Amino acid sequence: MGEYRIPAGETAHDEWAMDITPERAGWAYSGIRSLSLDPGQAVSFSTAGDEVMLVPLEGGYRVGVDGEGDWDLVGRAGVFDGPTDVLYVPRDAHVTVTAVGGGRLAIPTARAENRFPVQYVAADDVPVFVRGAGAWSRRVRDFGNASVVDADHLIAVEVINPGGNWSGIPRHKHDTAGEHESQLEEIYYFEAAPTPGADGYGLMRVSSSEAGEIDVAEEVRSGDAVLVPFGWHGPVTAPPESDLYYLNVMAGSTGRSWNITNIDEDAWVAKRWESLDPDPRATREGRPSGQ
Asked: Mean pLDDT across the stretch 40-66?
């Protein structure tokens, strides 16, 4: 593996706007797919050996699973407009997705051995909280953790990084299975709020750990993905006036526990939070300024 940033459109084919399989990533579990659909357009696919979550990025959808039931995903106008309802679908299922008014749908995936029931999570039931304080504040929508959805390996979460703020701090890793750390492959999928007259962007850093050599310092834009097979990751930064969204997909050999190790030299950051208030922009949902 040597290509860690996957630009928007690089894995597009057929009806898929993005299709990053574990084989494409060069690892064993995590993947992500996405669809861009016109109003009324329907796409059918098999989950095969993957469990998946359907996460509306834009628009609403009608979802049929195995011809036995239909679920309506209300969705949202865009990723900066608040949490969305989501649907978990197990492996070995046949899915039909129909766009109500057109839009974009992300599908985090993970290889799975066990089969769980289809599960719907309403937007109002998505845990939302602020992590960090001051310029390290970010908003987390934690719809895909073990306390919300029963699954085999898949973990998924959304983060909103207000313009000018840093996230992924303290720098951390989850690449070595042990009593206090999980082994999880991770994908970051990004969308950036536009600035006046220009597209938005962000920056992401990943560096080597004992698990392997890696050196990522990349500009990321809407539709880009970054693969994190191992290593210390963080910070993710958003420039002033350009809020940044990312969807994290994680899965690995240690099931669905999210146990991380923070890098020692960033211990002062968490200590500093104790004397700071959260950035007010991280405490509220809604469109970023200027949109």
From this structure: 98
Judge if the upstream peptide bond of residue 278 is cis by omega within 30 degrees of 0.
no
Domain ranges, ordered by start, for the chain: 5-274
C-alpha 115, offset from chain centre: 22
β-pair partners for 170: none
The CA distance from 34 to 272, in Å, is 38
SS3 132: coil
Alpha-carbon distance of 172 to 253, in angstroms, equals 18
Residue whose C-alpha is closest to residue 76's, from 12, 13, 143: 143
The shares of helix, strand and coil residues in the chain, as percent rounded to the nearest 5, are 10, 50, 45
Whether the Cβ atoms of residue 177 and residue 184 lie closer than 8 Å to each other = no
Q: Which of the four pLDDT bands, split at 50, 70 and 90, describes residue 198?
A: confident
pLDDT tens-digit readout, 69-91: 899 999 999 999 999 999 999 99
196's tokens: 């006046």
- Report yes or no: 108 and 32 within 8 Å, Cβ to Cβ: yes
Residue 290, pLDDT > 70, answer no
Tokens of 20: 């990053």
CATH code at 5-274:
2.60.120.10
